[in-house]
Amino acid sequence: FTAGSGYAFQSAPASRVVTSRASPLHETKADLEDLAKKLNPVIGYYDPLGLGGSRFAGRSDEFTVGFLRHAEIKHGRVAMAAFIGYCVQSFYRFPWAMTLDGASFPSLALSPPEQWDVLPFAAKLQIILFVGYLEFYSEISSSKGQPGELKHYCKGGIPGKYPSFDANPHPVPFNLYDPFNLHKNMSKEDKERRLLIEINNGRLAMFGILGFLSAQETPGSVPLLNGMLEPYKGEVMAPFQGDIDIILGGRSMVEAWHLN
After folding, report:
1. How far apart are CA 246 and CA 253, in angstroms?
2. Are 65 and 71 in contact (CB under 8 A)?
3. What long-range pairs does 105-111 form, CB within 8 A, spacing at least 24?
4. How confident is the model at residue 4 (pLDDT cuts 50, 70, 90)?
5. 154 close to 56: Cβ distance less than 8 angstroms
6. 254: pLDDT strictly greater than 80
7. 59 CB-near residues (< 8 Å, 6+ apart)
8. Is 60 exceeded by the pLDDT of residue 23?
9. Which tens digits make up the pLDDT trace of 66-89?
10. Using CA atoms, how far apart are residues 77 and 80, in angstroms rounded to an integer?
């Protein structure tokens, strides 16, 4: 993934930002092709499965393209958080207690996947529920007449734009995006340019975190990481391994997976 890092971290040239359009690039396949050239002029538009023109469930291009763009931006953000988290928790451990009974955070002697495995089930559940709430809120907060009204990304809204918490009945002091209002006066052109940078960084982060996990799960699968990461004996696709076992044919789900 380092081969593409030159393009992934380059700022999009200001001269290439389209300012004459009445709406952002997210409505048709042609918009995707135009966007792809700005993100990576060398590769351009790459869609071997033809998803851009597939019209999911018989819906419009606007629905399909909005869904695809929002999904990529969201996965990129999750991957960036995962990549940074993987690096940080490999070298730093919070000094305070992790639980109310005084238990410490997992040891640095464990790799990040192993650190997840030893977390209490309640802690894992809190993380999953919190992320689930953020996802749920982003989908329902576009009610008309509410302070946080935001047009849905599949209905002509802006992909990747997270709603404010103004419509939340419980007061929330900070919004998820720009909590200190440092960028409230940013121009539309700067927002478009920064989004291009974010998408490229997100794509690189997806390669990065998958590279880390692949190297641990299958030693030697990522030559650049050989000798840098300890093999992981668990299963990254079973996040509740040891907490919840699904029995398939007399074996746990993880055992059945490895046998196949």
Report:
1. 5
2. no
3. 111/216, 111/229, 111/230, 111/232
4. very low
5. no
6. no
7. 154
8. no
9. 999 999 999 999 999 999 999 999
10. 5
Task: Find the helix or strand (DSSP H, E) in which 5 lies.
Answer: helix 5-8
Residue 222 neighbours by CB distance under 10 Å:
19
In the chain, the amino acid numbered 191 is K
Tokens for 121, please give them.
Answer: 């089930």
Contact (Cβ atoms closer than 8 angstroms) between residue 29 and residue 52: yes
Give residue 30's Cα distance to chain centre: 25
Nearest to 76 by CA among 198, 197, 170: 198
Q: Token pair for residue 113? A: 């996947």
Look up residue 45 and give its DSSP letter: -
- Per the CB < 8 A criterion, the answer to whether 17 and 193 are in contact is yes
pTM check: above 0.90: no
How many CB atoms sit inside 10 A of residue 232's CB? Answer: 20
- Give the three-state DSSP class for 103: coil
Rounded CA-CA distance 128/214 in Å is 23
Structure tokens at 221: 């699968």
Radius of gyration of the chain (CA): 21
Classify 242 in phi/psi space as left (phi over 0), alpha (psi -120 to 50) or beta.
Answer: left
For residue 146, pLDDT beyond 70: no
d(CA 217, CA 235): 8
Name the maximum alpha-carbon separation found in the chain: 63
